[in-house]
Design goal:
By secondary structure, the protein is an alpha/beta fold. It is built from 32 helices and 26 strands. A 7-stranded parallel beta sheet has the order 13-14-12-15-16-11-19. Helix 11 crosses helix 12 and helix 11 runs parallel beside helix 13. The protein binds a DNA duplex through helix 5, helix 11, helix 21 and helix 28.
Length: 771
DNA sequence: TGACCGCGTCTTTTT
DNA sequence: GACGCGGTCA
């Protein structure tokens, strides 16, 4: 057995790889070779003769799985590696759920609803219940349902749980339980699972079928989990159950990089690992091979401000490197220019190529200004995230046809394309069908299949149109027995005229739509060839079962080589770049004011910043703007408190003078560049005369400037005043710090006894005045 | 039924 | 600024 590759590891990496007898936790600091440990460990297991098919490796993204599999194949050979169970939780367990069809009430061809399908279904349920969608906001309802599912709370349990009912009642949305119940019934009827179902149903499968659980427990003799800090309760429990028999489980992660709590990720899973697995070995990887000492030390000094963490000593033995330059510009527009100019500088000096540079931001909306600036400087870039390929209208339309062909009961797919291209079946008819399906407790497809039998109140013309539509879909379904995915998708595109719909128009938009459809065809083609090569199925439903779990990250193209990368910090997790620009480091944006209502949330934002900094290998730039065009108006902002969290010895700060400057000058990295005129939005020619908004002060709160130029801060409220003592149903008693207006929302900042300061929306908070 | 217009709302991150 | 919704008109 050739184990020479183990010599490529450092001491702690090697120990982590070689320990295979029981549970282990690998705490991997940023850049410490986490992926290396995982791949080498799997290779190590394989070399010892453990069959690939008995190793389950769960990753966070498809891309991570693919890359890891590739590396393992290089080490141990393609044949040995091929049968590894490696993928995201969602893709692995959707495979298992399909294999175990019938045990969960879903067939093996179940559709996967993406978030917009879920939202759309929730929206129609809210409408059917005649509820106000301003109160029952679909997004909000979805997130409540999602949270419930991630915590394995079924609709019945949700309705029965008095705490949840009380919370919903206090939030004035007591009927969530009904929406949740109906939502689940409708999904089941449509033979559709949403993302969260994939985890929830897996748990139900294992809970209700001990024999099935036992089968997989025996089957998977070794389990590895990557990015364990970002697992939620549903994922935690799946892993725990599967590992119960052997306890040969190895989880890898970094608590300092846990940034997905909004998706239900629970950092306690990693913090409490040793309580779950009493005999667990812990390995710490602390040497960072990625970044300069300055970057590592700066990141350490930042994360040190977090209370909740596993202390570790991440260090780098690379060169000391450059200090992190912090820059301040007058507005977001100049910030973009600053970044673009600096990137051009690199090119002139031949220091870095474009693909070694990344620009990271907190929100996708920030990409726009930066994009403009890069374009002006003729810098090629690639934006990740935002509207992903598979969320584009034309792609979703084609996919919806495919979904309907494989599963005609898929309500969301039906609604989407029943009138695309226009065939005279409008909203009125669709609503009648939905109504009718509801009263007959059946699916819309059944109604269309037998219009007369269901007494659908439409005229003969409409009935014919519906019959024609049904014939189209039925014909495709017949073809699906003989054609592979590529042939069928091609037929669908041609026969439905989706493509020809765009032919008439030669606008740039339509050309891009055509290209996208061609791109999709290419992807299906590749899928079919790949599957054929491996002797696997390549029918349309096989394609669909994979495509619904793909994301933008998975569509890398060769043409994207040598471009600057632009993405959110979240999307950058796991990646590394020679040069990283972190833009928009402003209070209320980063940390995001929407996100932060507690110290716990603030710590997550801080971890997010930590992730951003540690992406950089050699150079890291941080910038913030004094004003920014956001949500249709210009807002003044203060530098992020996180900048102060970094030990200043690693930073070059903008000169203090610039910090508070009242003139139109801005600080920049090249002092000789001419100052451009500030760009302010509509009718905002005159700046407010007050300057104090530029002076850093506590609390660092963004002051909203209306277009009229008026400044609004704290406001009067008839009922609530600062210093009042109040009681909240969840947070208990506290004292009001301030009442202020955020946009149109009246908010209260309250210092709760023992719970710290929180910001609440007055209209929802239901506060009781104590004194 | 479908195209178009204007208004109001909502702006975080993603498998 | 962008999008979705509701209303109006052909």
């Amino acid at each position: 057995m050739d184990l020479a590759f183990l010599n490529e590891l450092n001491d702690s990496q090697r120990k982590a790889v070689e320990y295979t007898d029981g549970a282990s936790l690998v705490i991997a600091g940023a850049g410490s070779g986490k992926t290396r440990v995982l791949t080498y460990k799997i290779a190590f297991l394989l070399k010892q003769g453990i069959p690939a098919s008995s190793i389950l490796a769960l990753t966070f993204t498809n891309k991570a799985a693919r890359e890891m599999k590739k590396r393992i194949a290089e080490m141990v050979g393609d044949k040995t590696a091929r049968y590894l169970w490696m993928g995201t939780f969602h893709s692995i367990f959707s495979r298992i759920l399909r294999a175990e069809e019938g045990k969960t009430g879903f067939t093996r061809n179940f559709t996967v609803y993406d978030s917009s399908d879920s939202n759309s279904l929730i929206k129609s349920i809210i409408k059917e219940l005649k509820l106000d969608d301003k109160v029952y906001k679909p997004g909000l309802v979805h997130s409540r349902i999602s949270t419930a599912k991630n915590n394995l709370i079924t609709p019945a349990a949700y309705s029965a749980n008095s705490d949840l009912q009380k919370a919903d009642f206090n939030s004035r949305i007591p009927l969530i339980k009904d929406i949740y119940t109906i939502y689940c019934n409708r999904c089941k009827q449509a033979d559709a699972m949403d993302f969260d179902d994939l985890l929830l149903q897996t748990n139900l499968l294992f809970r209700n079928n001990f024999d099935v659980l036992e089968k997989y427990q025996r089957f998977f003799s070794y389990i590895l989990v990557d990015e364990y800090q970002d697992t939620n309760f549903a994922q935690y429990l799946i892993v725990k159950k599967l590992a119960e028999l052997h306890e040969r489980i190895c989880v890898v992660g970094d608590d300092a990089q846990s940034i997905y709590s909004f998706r239900g990720a629970n950092i306690d899973n990693i913090l409490q690992f040793r309580n779950t697995y009493k005999n667990a070995q812990v390995f710490k990887l602390e040497q960072n091979y990625r970044s300069t000492q300055t970057i590592v030390n700066a990141a350490n000094s930042l994360i040190d401000k977090n209370e909740k963490q596993i202390r570790k000593n991440v260090f780098s033995e690379k060169e000391v490197g450059n200090l992190i330059k912090v820059s301040c510009t007058i507005n977001d527009y100049e910030e973009g220019n600053l970044v673009a100019r600096e990137i051009t500088n690199f090119r002139v000096k031949d220091k870095f190529s474009y693909q070694q540079v990344a620009i990271l931001y907190r929100t996708n909306a920030q990409s726009r200004v930066i994009e403009e600036a890069l374009r002006k400087e003729l810098i090629p870039y690639r934006i990740y995230g935002g509207l992903s390929f598979y969320q584009r209208k034309e792609i979703k339309d084609v996919i919806a046809y495919c979904r309907l062909v494989c599963n005609p009961h898929d309500e969301e797919a039906l609604k989407r394309i029943i009138n695309v291209p226009a065939r005279g079946i409008g909203d009125t008819t669709v609503n009648k069908i939905l109504d009718c399906a509801k009263t007959h407790s059946t699916t819309p497809w059944m109604v269309i299949s037998d219009v007369l039998g269901h007494n659908l109140p439409v005229n003969a013309g409409t009935a014919t149109k519906l019959a024609n539509f049904k014939t189209i879909i039925d014909n495709f379904s017949l073809l699906s027995d003989t054609l592979n995915a590529y042939e069928l998708v091609e037929t669908i595109i041609k026969a439905t005229g989706i493509l020809s719909e765009t032919y008439t128009d030669t606008s740039a938009e339509n050309i891009s739509r055509q290209e996208n459809i061609q791109e999709l065809l290419k992807a299906v083609h590749e899928f079919c060839e790949n599957k054929e090569k491996n002797g696997e199925q390549n029918s349309l439903s096989d394609f669909l079962s994979e495509v619904s779990l793909l994301t933008d990250q998975d569509t890398d193209k060769d043409s994207d080589k040598n471009k600057v990368t632009m993405m959110t910090v979240h999307a950058a997790k796991g990646l590394e770049f020679k040069v990283v620009f972190i833009v928009g480091m402003e209070e209320d944006l980063f940390p995001s004011s929407y996100n932060v209502t507690s110290e716990r949330d603030l710590e997550e934002e801080r971890r997010l910043f930590y992730v951003a900094i540690t992406r950089a290998e050699e150079l890291c730039y941080i910038s913030y703007a004094q004003s920014r065009f956001r949500n249709g108006s210009t807002n003044f902002s203060n530098p992020s408190r996180f900048i102060d969290d970094i030990n200043p010895e690693y930073l070059i700060m903008p000169e203090k003078e610039n910090y508070q400057r009242k003139t139109n000058r801005f600080d920049n990295w090249d002092d000789d560049i001419e100052v451009e005129r500030m760009k302010f939005g509509n009718g905002f020619g005159s700046r407010p005369s007050r300057n104090e908004t530029f002076i850093p002060q506590q609390p660092k709160r963004m002051v909203k400037i209306e277009n009229s130029g008026k400044e609004r801060k704290e406001i009067q409220n008839g009922q609530f005043k600062p210093d009042q003592k109040v009681k909240h149903s969840i947070f208990g008693t506290g004292k009001i710090v301030s009442i202020y207006l955020d946009g149109a929302n009246e908010k209260a900042e309250i210092d709760f006894d023992g719970k710290g300061k929180k910001t609440l929306l007055l209209k929802f908070a239901k506060l009781e005045i104590i004194e």
